[in-house]
Each structure stands twice: as C-alpha cells, then as structure tokens.
Request: fold
Amino acid sequence: MKRILIIGATSAIAEHCARIWAAEGDALHLVARNEQHVQLIASDLKVRGDSEVTTYVTDLNNMDKHEELLDVAAAALGGVDIVLIAHGTLSNQKSCELSVHETLAEIQTNALSTISLLTLIANRFEAKKSGTICVISSVAGDRGRASNYVYGSAKAMVTAFTSGLRQRLYKSNVSVVTIKPGFVDTPMTTGFKKGVLWAKPTTVAVSIVKAIDKNKSELYAPAFWLVLIAVVKFIPEQIFRRISL
Amino acid sequence: MTNLTKIYGWGRYPQQDAYLHAPPSSASLEFTAKQQDSVLARGMGRSYGDSANALNVLQTTYINHFIEFDKSTGKLSAEAGITLREILEVIVPSGWFLPVTPGTSYVTLGGAIASDVHGKNHHIAGTFGQHVKSLSMLLGTGEVVTTSPQHHADLFHATCGGMGLTGIIISATIQLLPIKSSLISQKTIKADCVEAACEAFESNSNATYSVAWIDCLSKGKSLGRSVIMLGEHSEQGGLEIDTRQKVSVPFSTPSVLLNSLTMKAFNTAYWHKSKHNLSQTVGLMPYFYPLDAVGEWNRLYGKKGFLQFQCVVPRLDGIANMRRLLTEISNSGEGSFLAVLKQFGVANENLLSFPTEGYTLALDFKASETAIKTVKRLEDMVVDMGGRLYLTKDAVMQESTFKTTYPNWEKFEVVREQYGAVGKFSSAQSIRLGLA
Reply:
C-alpha cells in the first residue's frame, strides 16, 4: 500500500489517477478548493477501492497554508510516499492580454503556487531520503505560442523548475516526474473542437501511474507528443513568428 | 466558446450537429441546464437511432461517481453518468450483480433507466426500472426532486422509460441481485424453425435467463431456426471479473464486406457449429456482453451506419405473427447476422416502457434506402399485429405508429406538462414522434 497525496484532486486527470490507486488499495489524501466536489470524489473512491480516503479543502493560491497542508497530509496518511500536483486553470489568453492583473493571477495559480509546494515537499523528501513527486506540466510549456503563451510560460517555469529539482534530489533517492499532457478531453477543455490529437483522461492517468511506478523523469502523454513537440521546437523563431499556432 | 459537433447514436444513423456541454459536476449540470432553452441528457450514446440526438446536449460523462454501496444489503447509489461496466467492476467481486442488464455494459445508469432496458431475464425480473428504489432528477423548473414508486410516483413511472424527456436524472439507487459466483451455467438448445424456438421458450420459462440467436436469412422449413441459450448463476467458481477490452475495430470498414452472401455464410456456419443440448460454464462478461469484446463493432457497417429494428408482438398469435415477420425479412435478404429472439413477461406500469407480454425480435439492417423501406413495411405489420417498436432502437418510426402503439403517450404528456418538462427537454426522436 502506497500513501499518496493528491493536490488539485478534482482535476479530471488527478481523479482518474486516484481511481487507479484506489482500486489498488492505496491510501489517498485529497486536497482541493471545492469542498462539495472533493467530498463526492472521496465517497466515489471509497466505493471503487477499499482504501482510506481523507480530504483537505484550501485555495492553493493561499501559499501561507502550504506548510499546514503538508503537515495535515503527513498526519492523515502516516507519512507520504507519493505527491501528485495537478491543480491549475486553463488561462483565457485573450483576457490575459488585456489585463496585467489576470496574467499575473494565472502565473500565480499555474506556476508560483506549484513552486511553493515543490520547495516545501522537496525539503521534506530530501530529509527522509525517499519519495516521488509527480507534477503535471504541459506541452504548452515547451514553446510559447500566440494562442496560449501565458499558460505556456507558467508551465515552462514548472518544467524548468522540476528539471533542476530532479537533478538536485537524485542523490537523495527522491524521484521527480514531470508529466506533459497534450490535449486532454476534460471539463477544462469543454467547448474545444476535439480531433485525433485529443486523449481521454483515463488514458493519460494510466500512463502517469506507470511513469511514477517506473521512476520516469519526463513523460509526454500520450507519447506521440514527443515527436510533435520536437518538430514545433525545431522551427526557427524567424519562421515561427509568422505561423499562427 | 462551444462549437457544433456531429453526433449520432450507436447505429450512426441519423447524424446531427449539436452543441455539446459536459458539466464537470452535478452542481454545474444544474447551472448549465438552466442556461439552455431545450436540452437533452446524453450518456454513452448507445441508443441506436436519434433518441439521444438534440441541438443542445448535456453529456453526463463527468457525472459518474459512486455515492454509496452497502455490501450487506446490495443497495447501490451512484450518479447517472456511471457505466454499468464500472458498476460491475465494483459489485461482482463483492457478490452482487445487476438485477437486469442489457446486452452491452457500455451504457450509463441514467440511460438504462431512461430506456427502461430489459435483459435475458425479462420474463422473471421485468425491466431495469423495476429495480430502481429512487432517483434524483433535475426538472425543467430548475428544481431537484427525489422520486420513487412511493413519492411523485407519476413522475417516477414517466421517467423510467421516458427517454430523458421528463428531466435530467442526476443519480439513482438500485437494488442489486446477490450471486455466489461470477460464472453462468449455460445450456444450448437448437430449434430448427421459429415455431420450435417459441415452444422452447415456453417449456423453459423457469430458466433465469433465456435468449435466442435467430437466423433471419434461412427460408422455408428452416425459417427462423434458432440457437437458444439458457443460463443460471453458478453456485461456485469465484467472483473474479475481467473487464479488459480485447480488440477494437479501428475504422469504418467498407460496408460491402457485410452483404447477403457473407451474412448467409456466417449464419449457416453458426448454426452448424452450435451443439444441441450442450451444457457449459461461461463467464459473466462473455455470457451477457459478447459484443463488448469487440470495441466499436458498429464500424463494421461502414460509414453510413445501420438501422436497428426491435419489435414485440403479443403472445396471442405471436408464433404465427413471428413467422410472417421473418418471412418478410428473409425475402428482403437484408437482415444481418446479429438477430435476437426472446420471450417477454408481463408489462410494467412505466408509461413508455417497451416490453409487453409476447415475443420480441431484434436485428440490424445496413442503412440504405431499401432498408428504410423494409423497416417501414415491418413497422406497418407490427402495428396490425398489435405490437410495438422499441424507442431506444428506433430512427424512423412514424408519429401515428407511436401514438397508436404507446397508448399511454397522452398520460406521459400530462406528467411532462405538470413537472415543467414541456419545451425544456426534447430529442430529435421526440420531435419526430410529435411529443410537445
């Protein structure tokens, strides 16, 4: 039995990871903002698995609460083996362009709150010389594009931060897994026209759970994004600036 | 922000453009429903025709949580978007099974109630709705109510089998069936014509499960030759269940592959391969859901899709009438190899529920102009026989047929009016059938 802390537990990808873990009998501690929604998920997981499920409600932008959040989780689970950080918002690029406040708020939610958590968790895991930290970043962080560079740059920060953290913690036997999902059909992306590039959250969750089990470093989910992104990154800026993506 | 998306039922005919909304939770479901003029809840899209087609669709994809499962009493509460397959994964290892199940596990709880689905045990257990203890639903007025056979009974009996036209089912509590094993003891009986098949149903009416594969292409003396499969829950053998998907049809195959020649060859081979009086033990999944083993099998019918035809004819003169229908089908030469015959038990009180006492026949027709004509001819015959067609399978029924063969439709409309459903919930099918 693994003891797993899920931050941003109402995200569709996190919820599907939780369903896999619950079915395997792992103990789960769910952190989310919406109390009613996280309670619903907790009851569901208790039926799907026979595992212990506890919850904690907080707004993750309230970074003063992060230390307390981790203390409560450690107490509820009796120690933490795996942390999955999955919270985030899909920024509205157009309204961010018109508002400094909104742009910074998106960066706060999608990058700074994650970095605050990572800093605290890294020190705890480094001290006990074990643990796995899995963070959901995005393919959007691999190159800024006109259509969503605010979200993309926040995710770029998360990707770079986890890459450095992975090197630092390697010596301490702590794994850092960066997940870069492509287009995933979740409530966050309702209203987008879905094509062949779109994946189901269940599929992405299966590969995340596997990546954690195998101590992977970085994972594109689904894997074909590795190739697509390699192509996108290869285009010189002089040409890239003329393309609308 | 929302685009038009092409949607269709399992038969992939007809198709329509729709605005899809997939609320992340039941709370936002209520919010989204209040925004739309007229909406329809949609689950897995497994009804065959246009009964889940509408311009504004509320997909229940994310309204799929278990609420409570009491392993000692077998009472299960869950949200409407959960699939029967997910339910099976949880309940079978604890010694419980669905009291009634259709031929696929890829339907939602809400869809099973809205279609008031039946299974191989209809003659004993009735329909799915008869095992629903209570359900919580969103009305056209914006109110959320709990209904049961005791509370708002009129709404309950209109909603079970009501095709989503009375409101949006949010969650339901059902009573499960205790089992000692996840195996089924199956007995196979061969009947060399439709009369022999119907007699086999009569003489095996105490079997818990009974269904027949029927050859809709054979003629003359062997018209309607059938392989009847009887089943009982086994007493031993463990409670394991394997719900992994084995194979899938990756794309629409050229529909010429399914022609009268290949289907005839398949049927003849199936008939000769089956053994009379064979007893064997099979797993729950292959027994109840043989087609679920092949993902997206509907693609075998090609891009144009197919029509499903399912009728029931009354028990009185039922055998003779079944022979008349089968003669028409075999003369058309279009029926497929996926044909099923079953005897139904008595009807229930749900206003638009399909099953009535008699014989039911279900089969596919590759979509074409001539197939539509054949299905319409069969429709007229069924009306004359005092039978009816299954709304969940239908894509072409005429308004007059519906209103003649579902005499409770006026009561249904009264209930819809009373609970604020009129003008708020509609489908392509409900418009075609002349419901308000």
Chain A has a mean pLDDT of 94. The beta strands of chain A are 3-7, 27-32, 53-57, 82-85, 132-136, 175-181, 218-221.
